[in-house]
């Protein structure tokens, strides 16, 4: 973390878990466990159908609600999709874009990711843009090239003034939901590399303002060490965020 230049953001990704009642119950528990948070922003990204319940439950605290996906067109004949204006009207502040599960199971391309990033920014919200390499790519030693290409494509056409609202989540695919975690040094090295890519595109002042999270089996035991790295400005947390106590412990680690 480097709080002098950028925000620390801890974000939960509940994926396709919890119905409206479970959302309410877990939100109440998180609220009761997370004390006064001074040093980081907290986001809980819930399934679209639970957004209204989450916004209501978190209304009286500083925890923001995020969505896990969005479509880039504002309206029209796109059965089953949800638009930026729809999310905004519910009170959503953050949207996860390009999660590896969306890329893998729903065929989302870098071009889709780039359109979604711009749509979310134009709608006044913050995209949490997921990038990361597969295990075979790391074993082949090409992880930096892969991630650099994903970052460049995702940020295509994004105005420098909007970069402050962009969060990049570095999520090595081999670490998502597997219990395997990048070492703090590996996570930091990639954070630094992503910042270098952004610096080449937008200059040093913009690059140092961008929040770069780590995601991939972050939990209550490894969060402090990961977050102690200068280029790990928060976390995107799947499995451990489903348990309010574990999530609150990660928030606590970021709030030191
Ligand atoms: C994620 O889905 O973004 C994620 C990081 O999951 P997990 O924490 O379970 O690895």
- How much beta, percentage-wise? 15-25%
Q: List SSEs in N-to-C order.
A: EHEHEHEHHEHHEHHEHEH
Q: Kindly report the average pLDDT value.
A: 96
Based on helices, strands and strand pairing, what is the structural class? alpha/beta
Q: Would you count the extended β strands for me?
A: 8
Largest sheet: 8 strands, parallel, barrel
Task: Describe the 3D structure.
- The chain has 256 residues and is of the alpha/beta class.
- The chain contains eleven helices and eight strands.
- An eight-stranded parallel beta barrel has the order 1-2-3-4-5-6-7-8, surrounded by five helices.
- The model has no long low-confidence stretch (mean pLDDT 96).
- The site of phosphoenolpyruvate (PEP) has 13 residues, from strand 8.
- Phosphoenolpyruvate binds at residues 13, 171, 176-177, 215-218, 236-240.
List the helices and strands and how they pair.
Elements: E1 8-13, H1 20-33, E2 40-45, H2 51-57, E3 63-67, H3 84-90, E4 94-97, H4 100-105, H5 110-122, E5 126-131, H6 135-139, H7 143-154, E6 167-170, H8 184-202, H9 204-209, E7 211-215, H10 223-227, E8 234-237, H11 244-254
Parallel strand pairs: 1-2, 1-8, 2-3, 3-4, 4-5, 5-6, 6-7, 7-8
Helix pairs in contact: 1-2, 1-11, 7-8
